[in-house]
Write a sequence for this structure.
């Protein structure tokens, strides 16, 4: 351990939900995106799943909202070190979309791509079993544009850059393919509990 | 989920034609980021503190084995308390690329801030902290394309690394800097700006200079210069400033995929 002289940190209570190296951002919700926030209305928004699936297809806003509603209540963790406890997102579980497109047995990974051109890669297993959503509400209100509204991917058990804002689609592949931040040195999976921040962690 | 598959208005989608999103990031494949170097924590020894403004100081460190960086990149910095508690934050590199074995960071003293508070009240030469990096090639500028830099407050830090790089290497690729500060006494690196820089003062300005925030009137003349190949725009500052400046740029005709943004939160 490399103790910093004179550093005590702020008074704190240990929060069991805080992964290593993270701090509680409280009411703050920092915005971290590298691109210009796209002007995207619900009427322009589409979401497509293709690649290694039995039935590739697209949904528009109304079609996606016709799927069974689902809520995530819990914590989120950003690789830049902040975490937020007890947030509430509304949308649809990705499982409802998987039931429609039916992934091939050969599919192992997913590239999520957004309407801004951003991409991020994920193992398919991280997007099934009730652990991932398409979210369009935050705290009972429409998701703000700077946080990915009208709709973003939500994969709360991974660092938040995996929860692609302005989600446009998912492509299923039989191999892993680094996305935008991953090509820029970030970790392929991004598990906050294992501090998988950068490639090599 | 039979109802969804049954209503099949999407038959045309059944092809595997790759989808092309409406805009594309200019992900710069030309920038090599050393992932191996970034994976390791290194000890950085504080060698010098320079005051920039009443609230901002520059901290110079010796970092043996630092692999160098590209202007615009940042690092992760970690402080450790006696009980093992750690605080880590991102900071942009202020120093130019050619400063072997040394790095400089410029920190705003954030009210009640845990890490910037330690730097501004406790830190002295000889102290050790830990750093890893450099990180993220996206906001980096190797000095190849015409660069239009727009920053506010401590958002000017990575842009100054670019400006210093431009000067030290005597590059002749065009570079312009628009920097916003509340007043002249809060303008970081004030003594270092030259003809490439326009300062915008939002609250108090020197005699004869206007007061007001960055506007289309500042952006339009620079965009009108239109260097060969066009500008690569780099915007850095608070999220509110980044939203404002990036929208101004796009409204003035800068292509959306030639705007790179670093948001400090
Ligand atoms: C890519 C990147 C590059 C950056 N580069 C720079 C740079 O070059 N220079 C720079 O100055 N900054 C930079 N930043 C911002 C920097 O990372 C820090 O956010 C900043 O220094 C504040 O950290 P802190 O620990 O001092 O404040 P924090 O402790 O994080 O506090 C921030 C604010 O929240 C409040 N707060 C948070 N938690 C609590 C709590 N538990 N109790 C009371 N109050 C609380 C504080 O009062 C304060 O107002 C950068 C950020 C990013 C993402």
């Amino acid at each position: 351990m490399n103790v910093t002289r004179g550093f005590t940190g702020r008074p704190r209570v240990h929060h069991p939900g805080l992964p290593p190296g993270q701090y509680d951002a409280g009411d703050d919700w920092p915005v971290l995106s590298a691109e210009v926030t796209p002007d995207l209305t619900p009427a322009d928004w589409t979401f497509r799943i293709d690649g290694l699936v039995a039935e590739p297809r697209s949904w528009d806003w109304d079609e996606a909202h016709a799927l069974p509603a689902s809520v995530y209540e819990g914590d989120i963790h950003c690789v830049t070190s902040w975490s937020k406890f007890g947030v509430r997102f509304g949308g649809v579980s990705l499982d409802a979309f998987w039931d429609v497109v039916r992934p091939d047995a050969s599919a192992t990974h997913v590239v999520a791509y957004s309407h801004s051109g951003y991409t991020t890669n994920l193992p398919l297993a991280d997007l099934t079993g009730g652990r991932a959503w398409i979210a369009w509400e935050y705290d009972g209100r429409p998701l703000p544009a700077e946080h990915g509204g009208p709709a973003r991917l939500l994969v709360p058990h991974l660092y938040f850059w995996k929860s692609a804002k302005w989600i446009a689609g998912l492509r299923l592949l039989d191999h892993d393919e680094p996305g935008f931040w991953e090509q820029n040195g970030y970790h392929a999976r991004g598990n906050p509990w294992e501090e998988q921040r950068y490639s090599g962690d | 989920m039979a109802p969804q598959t049954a209503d099949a208005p999407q038959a045309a989608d059944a092809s595997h034609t790759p989808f092309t999103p409406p805009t594309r990031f200019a992900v710069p494949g030309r920038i090599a980021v050393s992932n191996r170097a970034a994976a390791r924590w290194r000890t950085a020894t504080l060698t010098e503190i320079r005051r920039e403004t009443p609230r901002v100081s520059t901290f110079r460190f010796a970092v043996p084995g630092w692999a160098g960086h590209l202007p615009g990149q940042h690092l992760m910095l970690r402080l450790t308390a006696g009980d093992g508690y750690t605080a880590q934050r991102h900071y942009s590199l202020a120093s130019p690329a050619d400063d072997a074995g040394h790095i400089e960071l410029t920190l705003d003293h954030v009210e009640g801030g845990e890490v910037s508070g330690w730097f501004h009240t406790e830190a002295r030469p000889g102290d050790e902290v830990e750093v890893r990096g450099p990180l993220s090639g996206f906001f980096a500028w190797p000095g190849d394309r015409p660069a239009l830099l727009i920053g506010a407050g401590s958002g000017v830090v990575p842009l100054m690394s670019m400006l210093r790089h431009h000067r030290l290497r005597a590059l002749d690729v065009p570079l312009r800097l628009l920097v916003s500060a509340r007043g002249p006494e809060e303008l970081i690196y004030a003594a270092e700006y030259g003809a490439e820089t326009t300062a915008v003062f939002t609250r108090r300005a020197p005699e004869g200079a206007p007061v007001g925030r960055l506007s289309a009137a500042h952006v339009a003349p620079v965009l009108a210069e239109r260097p060969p190949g066009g500008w690569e725009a780099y915007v850095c500052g608070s999220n509110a400033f980044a939203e404002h400046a990036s929208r101004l740029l796009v409204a003035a005709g800068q292509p959306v995929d030639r705007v790179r943004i670093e948001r400090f939160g």
Notes: Helices of chain B lie at 2-6, 35-38, 114-121, 157-168, 216-225, 239-251. The radius of gyration of chain B is 21 Å. Confidence is low (pLDDT under 50) at residues 1-23, 26-30 of chain B. Chain B touches chain A through 65 residues (CB under 8 Å).
